[in-house]
Design brief:
Blueprint lengths: L5 H11 L6 E8 L17 H8 L5 H11 L4 E7 L8 H14 L3 E2 L1 E2 L6 H9 L5 E3 L16 H4 L2 H10 L2 E4 L10 H13 L4 E4 L1 H4 L9 H5 L6 E3 L6 H11 L4 E2 L12 E5 L2 E7 L12 E4 L1 H5 L4 H15 L4 H17 L1
Helix pairs in contact: 1-13, 11-13
Length: about 350
């Protein structure tokens, strides 16, 4: 788990507390427990550093409530939650757990989905668990497709998109492929979804995984013609990308997402030459040797690192200030946009 230090309290007080609204909407939180992990399942698909951290940091509803209290002292949080996304998860059991929390508590949920599910199975996973949409993920694409070749329509089929459109569901997409948002197939598929399935409430997670400016490519030029799709900035700390996103799409198209529990790790991120590098305290994330995205530090440098989530929120606030947003715009990003889009 985590420990709140004076460094973190000071960071929250200085940069965040008085600059975000008293009620915030978290549109990107994972909930699961050890009961949802298959004993002999494959745990591949997420980045190694994410897998290493989350293998030791599952998050139940009760854990999430404590995290919100500790990290966002004095704030009320509305949550859009869904299960974990590695192949060693019993997805249906995890979806059922999300549904149970939806019934017991004031939150909304999505069903992690698999592309092989037919119409009946898809409808059952959502309706029987009182969920409001789908969370497809590249991990669950057909195994015969090389990971770098997966398309959005390999993650969520045209039949499933049609059902989501008929039902007016939320679809939260973690887009695939090494070029991320800049990939032309991804751009074309996103445009296709908005045009052909207008009733889907589409959220592009992590701003299309454009963690660096170089990951945007021509995407913003092409997607600027869209009117409805939203972008969450979960697990993202690049203020330059945020600034460009705000300049192209405006504040009304952005959503706050925590990506808990991943983002309660201690992390400072730098962006160099189209690559992001996570600076983390040595030993805090298992074996990350050889990972070009990871660099372990120690001593005073490690002691000065606060939480990933705080860095993400502060970066958005810096970008908002730079493009001249008003407090109302910031409140929209952290609360009102999600309240309107999802229906809190």
């Amino acid at each position: 788990m985590y420990q709140i230090k004076q460094l973190d309290k000071d960071f929250y007080k200085r940069y965040l507390r008085d600059n975000i609204p008293d009620c915030i909407c978290d549109t990107h939180a994972h909930l699961w427990t050890d009961k949802h992990i298959l004993k002999n399942g494959q745990s591949n698909g997420t980045a190694d550093w994410v897998h290493n951290f989350c293998a030791q940091n599952s998050m139940s509803y009760e854990s999430m409530e404590q995290v919100y209290q500790d990290f966002f002292d004095g704030k009320k949080v509305n949550t859009l939650a869904f299960g974990w996304v590695e192949r060693n998860v019993d997805v249906s059991l995890n979806n059922q757990y999300i549904g149970e929390q939806v019934k017991k508590h004031k939150l909304m949920g999505l069903a992690v989905s698999k592309p092989e599910w037919g119409a009946q199975k898809l409808l059952e996973e959502v309706r029987e668990n009182n969920l409001i949409g789908l969370k497809p993920y590249p991990n669950f694409s057909p195994v015969h497709i090389p990971p770098d070749s997966v398309r959005i329509t390999d993650m969520i089929t045209m039949e499933q998109l049609s059902i989501a459109n008929e039902q007016g569901w939320v679809v939260l997409l973690h887009i695939p492929r090494p070029k991320r948002l800049a990939d032309k197939e991804n751009m074309n598929d996103l445009l296709m979804i908005e045009k052909e399935f207008p009733n889907i409430r589409l959220i592009v997670a992590h701003i299309g995984r454009a963690y660096c400016l170089e990951n945007i490519g021509e995407a913003f030029s092409l997607l600027s013609q869209t009117k409805k799709m939203m972008f969450d900035f979960a697990g993202h700390t690049n203020a330059d990308v945020f600034e460009k996103t705000l300049s192209v799409f405006g504040a009304k198209r952005l959503l706050f997402g925590s990506d808990f529990p991943i983002t309660y790790m201690r992390l400072r991120r730098e962006h160099v030459g189209g690559n992001y590098v996570n600076f983390i305290p040595a030993g805090s994330c298992g074996d990350v040797g050889g990972d070009p995205h990871m660099k372990e530090v120690s001593g005073k440098e490690a002691d000065a690192i606060t939480f990933f989530i705080y860095e993400s929120m502060a970066a958005m606030l810096r970008a908002a200030k730079k493009v001249g947003l008003k407090q109302k715009d910031i409140n929209d990003i952290f609360y009102q946009n999600a309240a309107d889009f999802i229906g809190w």
